[in-house]
Amino acid sequence: MPLRLSTADPRFEDGFRGLLHAKRETAEDLNAAVADILADVRARGDAAVLDYTKRWDRLDLTADTLRVTAAEVDAAVSACDPATLDALHLAAARIEDFHRRQVPDRQDYVDAAGVRLGARWTPVGAVGIYVPGGTAAYPSSVLMNAIPAKVAGVPRIAMVVPSPDGVLNPLVLAAARASGVTEIYRIGGAQAVGALAYGTETIAPVDKITGPGNAYVAAAKRQVFGTVGIDMIAGPSEILVVADGQNDPAWIAADLLSQAEHDTSAQSILITDDAAFADAVARAVELHLQTLPRTEIAGQSWAEHGAIILVDSLSQAVPLVDRLAPEHLELAVADPDALAAEIRNAGAIFLGRYTPEAIGDYVAGPNHVLPTARSARFSSGLNVLDFMKRTTLVGCTPDSLRAIGPAAVTLAEAEGLGAHALSVAIRLGQGT
Amino acid sequence: MPLRLSTADPRFEDGFRGLLHAKRETAEDLNAAVADILADVRARGDAAVLDYTKRWDRLDLTADTLRVTAAEVDAAVSACDPATLDALHLAAARIEDFHRRQVPDRQDYVDAAGVRLGARWTPVGAVGIYVPGGTAAYPSSVLMNAIPAKVAGVPRIAMVVPSPDGVLNPLVLAAARASGVTEIYRIGGAQAVGALAYGTETIAPVDKITGPGNAYVAAAKRQVFGTVGIDMIAGPSEILVVADGQNDPAWIAADLLSQAEHDTSAQSILITDDAAFADAVARAVELHLQTLPRTEIAGQSWAEHGAIILVDSLSQAVPLVDRLAPEHLELAVADPDALAAEIRNAGAIFLGRYTPEAIGDYVAGPNHVLPTARSARFSSGLNVLDFMKRTTLVGCTPDSLRAIGPAAVTLAEAEGLGAHALSVAIRLGQGT
Lengths: 432, 432
Known about the structure:
Two copies of one chain form a homodimer. The first copy, chain A, is an alpha/beta fold. Chain A has three domains: 200 residues, Rossmann fold; 144 residues, Nitrogenase molybdenum iron protein domain (Rossmann fold, 3-Layer(aba) Sandwich); 33 residues, Single alpha-helices involved in coiled-coils or other helix-helix interfaces, CATH 1.20.5. Chain A has 17 helices and 14 strands. In chain A, strands 1-11-10-9-12-13 form a six-stranded parallel sheet, sandwiched between helices. In chain A, helix 10 packs across helix 12 and helix 16 packs antiparallel against helix 17. The first copy, chain A, is globular. The N and C termini of chain A lie far apart (75 Å). At the A-B interface, helix 5, strand 3, helix 10, strand 13 and helix 15 of A face helix 5, strand 3, helix 10, strand 13 and helix 15 of B. Strand 13 of chain A pairs parallel with strand 14 of chain B. Chains A, B: One of its GO terms (biological process) is L-histidine biosynthetic process.
């Protein structure tokens, strides 16, 4: 049974803190094993990657067959159901449209002192996208990682996807084509992360690696950080639904289960001001679980990590939401905007009764890679800026250096940095 | 003597690679010691912080004296030289003006399918700024870390600064006041990072920690990452000057030394197309070193990590710059804009002969916290967005859900996620 809490209960704060700080992941310590794999890939390049792929994916490749050919992608696309391809292309177009609006402008101006100032954004030179294989092969994840990179103008987008026993998901390859991936390698695990970070004879190194993976992949990303950039390390998925009693309990129950079915570590929380509605949702969850395909995963997640929190009024929900800082926040209430305006911490907000979170996983347009584990307090979902970097610009003339330079000399001297002071003073005609 | 390379030399590529991959820092392994300190602060709160402060800063504090009082800040400001305060306030005003232009707009629109989409930015709730004490107490660093947070609208900016033997730099306190810091604690080291991340009886926890520190501080920031956000872990400072033969060698030599004086691990590189100029700069460096106050540090940095690279033409410099991806790039050439347009990787670019890098350390306006160790390939300097987070917004009506929902159902089914499909289908009047 999921946790039940009520703000009317004097022990509420203890229960809520327990929910807030409950660990949902067992951190396996794979650091030493992963360090060995990375060092091996760095030292032996392709040969190491091929060895690990043979051992773990039971796949005998050569340097020539590491890369998926254009003909293979053609064949995969042809093998896809046309209606599914249409849905994929609709999703890709909507994601691209939303992300195009994130491309920042260059700034370039001369201020009152005559100093030229600005900032320009340039795309990262090459990006690696990690895509899980096997059962967790999600074409939507390819779109969400690759399209922002493409929109940013990244010239090289290299995708790695393991193909255990040689099997690749055709829709994953179709998604790669639809989202501007420029090269695909049939490898995975820490060895694929190492190949992207350090490069091999066949795979040129990239500057940044994004995308979800298992514990080996997460550990490898942490270890190569610095050599390359990485995106966040995603934790288990979460949804928080704030709903009044005017919703159909079966709808809200489906929303809660749409997170729960991801993973037994996923978390679904309902906050409502209506006790009878809370009970109705709990019953509807049990009903849905009788018919859904991933009932075992969803049922376990709901029982172990799910929660229903009863509040006196929905405004009481606001500080609880901010403390939970959920990845996904659904506001199934009459005036979602009024409630959203009071909330500070959430990765994405789904407004109103007709906006199930799953619409954002696929076709709404915003990115579905969002901050988990309360990190929405300080971080944002994946976006175009993650695939660009900003260079600031300063240009002084003799006059403008004369206007602001003396203050720099004063501060440099106060900090005891004589060469800093000298580099300005010497241009002002002052020896030191 | 600094390294000398020439692209005309057939062994140039080997030498350049050596420069590119040379390690400039000895990574001390402090992880276990730092983990113990953090665990102790988490368990014992103030008591642990007070114990470590007594041991390492030789300072006997109580919970009541941890915090620097407003009266102490008043007294510190009064103790500062008025001309230095003026320079500090000029710098603060210019930094604030530049950063105000980075505040992003909210997006909110309805697309062709009738779906409401958007993104809003909100400030991080509380930020901790780490400021080194002792000899490396830089008021400019306070301005550069705190002002972007203030401009972002962060309501709580808590600064920690160690005061060994009770000594605090008055100008650091004046900088804190000038840049909107809301509370100051006289503590440092891993214990201060732990106090900010986990909170103690006296210090409320923050959501993000920024600012430079020693190896203990860097290790502590890495370890608390996830509990809170952190900025980048800064490496030794770097400058790359691209200069033609029309510069005054003494000016360029001063610029190279302005990085070298930071730290024996700092790096200064000159790229020029004029061999005689290269020699003149090398001589000017030696001359300056005879008079500068930090000559030992600067001399060692220049001898061990400095480099002069001779190219046939300045356009040959472009790919070298992109591979070095310098923190600071000075373009002391006749047409700096033409050269800048070809370069992709640099933290900040200083345009023309009258723009010494040091002007950007203090008063130009852009941030001086910039990506080091080649990370300008994938990351940017500190800016207002680092103190805000983005929440995406989606809102469907019954009609717009009908327009895009079926594609979501199709993709959810293709991924085998039945509850995802159900949560959309049920709102379209389809059971499943």
